[in-house]
Write a structure and sequence with these properties.
This is Protein TAPETUM DETERMINANT 1. By secondary structure, this protein is of the alpha+beta class. 21% of the residues lie in helices and 30% in strands. A four-stranded antiparallel β-sheet has the order 6-7-5-9, with no helix packed on it. Strands 3-4-8 form a three-stranded antiparallel β-sheet, with no helix packed on it. It is elongated, with a radius of gyration of 22 Å.
């Protein structure tokens, strides 16, 4: 009998922990477009919003807006390290290829695999050796330099 009561008490605390975030201003649901907090941070998009966006792209043509480029700091000991992720968010059956990025005079103290990312000339870097970047495929690499290079979309071949 004591173990049954213990299970009920544990379940109550678990349910309280799950319900509590809703009371603190964090809401998840298909009707909400954004997560929000008491501090008013409306910059986090929910999965349901992303999925509805992807459904629209499934039947359409990919564009430069479907190539996501993020960059963040890795290790900060010694020469700073930066991590870059390039993702194709389009679900079309015709993935973009020959993707070129603005990259300034990109250089790294540590070798970057040229099949993933290669500087061809001033402000022109090639992604994935020019091969198509399939739906949801992520190209991830890191580089080391004293500063972060601004990297942004330049051009690609779309079907």
């Amino acid at each position: 009998m004591a173990s049954v009561i213990g299970v009920h008490v544990a379940f109550f605390f678990l349910m309280t922990a799950i319900i509590m975030p809703c009371n603190s201003g964090l809401h998840l649901g298909s009707s909400n477009k954004k997560l929000h907090s008491p501090q008013g941070d409306n910059n986090i998009t929910t999965t349901s919003t992303l999925l509805s966006h992807r459904k629209l792209l499934q039947s359409g043509k990919c564009t430069n807006r479907d190539i996501s480029i993020t960059q963040g700091q890795g290790s900060s000991t010694g020469i700073p390290e930066y991590i870059v992720e390039i993702t194709n968010t389009c679900l079309s059956n015709c993935p973009p290829s020959n993707i070129h990025l603005h990259c300034g005079l990109f250089a790294s103290a540590r070798l970057v695999d040229p099949q993933l990312f290669k500087r061809l000339s001033n402000d022109d870097c090639l992604v994935n050796g020019g091969k198509p970047l399939k739906a949801s495929q992520v190209i991830r690499f890191s580089y080391s330099n004293t500063f972060k290079y601004p990297i942004s979309f330049k051009s690609a071949k779309f079907c």
